[in-house]
Design brief:
Helix content: 25-40%
Number of domains: 1
Number of helices: 5
CATH superfamily: Pyruvoyl-Dependent Histidine Decarboxylase, subunit B
Strand order of the largest sheet: 2-5-9-1-4
Distance between the termini: 26 Å
Largest sheet: 5 strands, mixed
């Protein structure tokens, strides 16, 4: 079993007369167009290190199968605002998993869409950790409750928005990219070898 031990966030916007090409342009803007992307659900792995996009890309090779949580919104309507956002909530106990959320919307600014995604991720983690909160409170108030519990150490979001243009597809994306670097793979190889040696010794 391989569990990702690094994660980075990225975002991009692309425009083209063809819908698929606008998505490709957004991937290029985000720096992840060289990889075969596999979308996964929204768990921030235990003991996973948050790193920069620049550092994360150093671990990757063109054509590699890359797991990510992605938000994507697109339109070809003049002046229609589209937003894509990824929120994250990380527990203070690094051995505990956290949550990622995807939010896709129209008519929302970066701040509104980002706050919603961040709130969504934090609320999902809070229910897992047994933190009591009032769902009727606004995000700012709930964020204080989460932080005061000392069970959630960090929340953040990455958001991309852009206005559409008539006759041209505009695609916005935000993504959390999961990485398993060589160190973990080497550790697992050694573990497998150790298990094989132990089995042979018993025979």
């Amino acid at each position: 079993m391989v569990v990702p031990n690094k994660i980075f966030f990225t975002k991009g916007v692309g425009r083209h007369k063809e819908r698929l090409a606008s998505f490709e342009a957004a991937l290029r803007d985000a720096g992840i167009e060289k990889y075969n992307l596999v979308y996964v659900s929204s768990i921030f792995p235990p003991n996973c290190k948050l790193i920069s996009k620049e550092e994360g890309l150093k671990f990757l090779n063109p054509g590699e199968i890359l797991h990510c949580v992605m938000a994507r919104t697109e339109n070809d309507e003049r002046n229609r605002l589209a937003a894509a956002s990824i929120g994250v909530a990380i527990p203070s106990d690094s051995a505990q998993y956290g949550y990622l959320s995807e939010h896709h919307s129209y008519g929302e600014t970066d701040e509104v869409a980002g706050d919603y995604a961040e709130d969504l991720a934090a609320s999902m983690l809070a229910t897992t950790l047994g933190i009591e909160f009032d769902e009727n409170l606004g995000w700012d108030e709930r964020e204080k409750v989460y932080k005061m519990s000392e069970k959630i150490i960090k929340t953040k979001n990455i958001t991309q928005s852009a206005e559409g243009k008539s006759g041209v597809w505009t695609t916005v994306i935000a993504a959390a990219v999961l990485i398993t670097d060589g160190k973990q793979l080497i550790t697992e190889d050694k573990l497998n070898k150790s298990e094989s040696i132990a089995a042979e010794t018993k025979q």
